[in-house]
Design brief:
Elements: E1 3-10, E2 14-21, H1 23-40, H2 53-81, E3 98-99, E4 113-120, E5 134-139, H3 144-157, E6 160-163, E7 175-183, E8 195-201, H4 212-215, E9 223-229, E10 243-257, H5 263-269, H6 276-310, H7 317-334, H8 339-347, H9 353-361, H10 364-380, H11 387-401, H12 405-411, H13 415-435, E11 439-445
Length: about 450
């Protein structure tokens, strides 16, 4: 087919493709398709395959022309987009070419056929600007205090929870069950505010009205009305600057009976520990591994955020929509429901679907742009991984997890796991290159526990 084309880039990583099919090919294509119809069509008064083409044209004229125009356009696009020179302007898998104005061109077999389609292509980005990029690495120490905190967490997880004696008051760190409701100025329960059997740990701040201190000293089956005025700067908009009257009834008070920190506890945690010292050593190793991974994550995140800002480019709308759809489906799986049911459940609160996706999985556009920048740099810098480097990763993982290299290799027998490891190793090599081209300095001191509470 003799087809000429003109490609014009438009906004948001999309293109406009205008193509012209030569008149001879238009006529030939029309006659070929018409012959196919004539061969298979059945009409009263004619044997199958013997209906004259002029009769077919008379009966199916316009509809036939539209169908043949569509076929001609599809054939032309396939030829154009499969060409060796088409790599940079092929459509994304989820962006089908759409006709300009959504209208098929008129078919005239005595003339060339010209049509225009628009579609999204993969974004092209030039990562050139590294000026002024500074990465501050948090300073985190793991010492006796951090180890004590981890041991305390293990004690709490292995604690026996017992009912307190009747008449004993609520104290900090007790686990309480309460019934509560919000009251109006006349002392009546506000509709929708009543809740029975709410369980929380006193002092954790995990209750809606922040009444931890107010229920200290209460006893089982005691009811108390609490009036609280909240700070105007309270992060909870429903409470900020307001005064609330809450009725609280204590239904149960429990206390954690912490086990002793000894060899028996270590053995209860895992059969691989014989002594408390074994547990302490392994906890220290686990914390060091977690710290190293988190710091690496924060460094790469900071680097990519700055590269995205300094090397701007547009994302096609279809790419963003496809990514958000995939994330929504994944969240539905986590909630063990369908995407449709998840939308009904969560959007009833008035929130936008896009906001919910970003809230749970991060900003879609930023993450896509970061991914594209990484892929671009990996390709441009020809980053590769040798078998020896993969073996080195096996040893590193074994050291971090306290297992044998053979156990690590067994996990990576799965080709998908092996591919993920290779990709991760490539990215780490890329980051190490990039850190040499930007400024990496010491950041603020951060407690080990705070390192995992958010970005630092």
């Amino acid at each position: 087919m003799n087809v000429t084309k003109e490609i014009t880039k438009i906004e948001n990583s999309a293109v406009k493709l205008t193509a012209t099919i030569a008149q001879a090919d238009v006529e030939s294509g029309y006659k070929t398709e018409l012959a196919k119809y004539a061969k298979n069509i059945q009409m009263p008064g004619f044997r199958k395959g013997h209906v004259p083409t002029r009769i077919i044209e008379q009966k199916y004229g316009e509809a036939l022309k539209y169908e043949i125009v569509g076929e001609l356009i599809d054939n032309a696009l396939n030829e154009i987009l499969q060409g060796d020179d088409a790599k940079e302007y092929r459509p994304l898998p989820y962006s089908q070419p759409r006709l300009e104005d959504n209208k098929l061109p008129e078919l005239d077999i005595t003339k060339d056929l010209t049509f225009t389609v628009m579609y999204d292509i993969f974004p092209k980005v030039e990562v050139k600007n590294f000026n002024g990029i500074t990465i501050k690495e948090p300073q985190v120490q793991i010492g006796d205090k951090e180890l004590e905190d981890e041991l305390k967490s293990i004690q709490e997880r292995n604690a026996a929870v017992l009912d307190k004696k009747d008449g004993d008051p609520v104290e900090k760190d007790n686990i309480v069950t309460i019934d509560y409701s919000e009251l109006d100025d006349n002392g009546n329960v506000i509709e929708g505010s009543k809740r029975d059997g709410f369980v929380f740990t006193v002092g954790s701040g995990e209750d809606i009205y922040k009444i931890d201190d107010d229920i200290i000293g209460m006893k089982k089956d005691e009811t108390k009305q609490i009036t609280k005025t909240y700070d105007k700067k309270d992060p909870d908009e429903e409470l900020a600057g307001k005064t609330k009257k809450i009725s609280v009834t204590v239904k149960a008070i429990k206390v954690r009976n912490l086990p002793a920190l000894d060899d028996d506890l270590a053995q209860d945690v895992s059969e691989k520990y014989k002594t408390l010292d074994d547990l302490k050593k392994d906890l220290t190793r686990q914390m060091e591994t977690a710290k190293t991974r988190k710091l690496a994550e924060l460094k790469s995140q900071s680097l990519l955020e700055q590269l995205v800002e300094k090397n701007p480019f547009d994302l096609p709308k279809s790419m963003i929509e496809a990514e958000q759809a995939a994330r929504w489906d994944m969240m539905a799986q986590q909630f063990q429901t369908t995407p449709e049911q998840l939308e009904k459940m969560l959007l009833s609160s008035g929130q936008k679907k896009e906001d919910l996706i970003n809230q749970w999985t991060g900003n879609t556009e930023k993450m896509l742009k970061s991914r594209i920048i990484v892929d671009t740099l990996l390709r441009e810098r020809n980053i590769s991984v040798t078998p020896e480097e993969v073996e080195g990763q096996y040893q590193k993982i074994a050291d971090e997890q306290g297992i044998t290299v053979d156990e690590v290799k067994k996990h990576y027998d799965d080709p998908r796991n092996k591919e993920y490891l290779v990709d991760e190793t490539k990215e780490n090599k890329l980051y190490e290159e990039l850190y040499k081209e930007v400024k990496v300095s010491k950041g603020d001191k951060v407690a080990f526990a705070d390192l995992f509470k958010g970005n630092n």
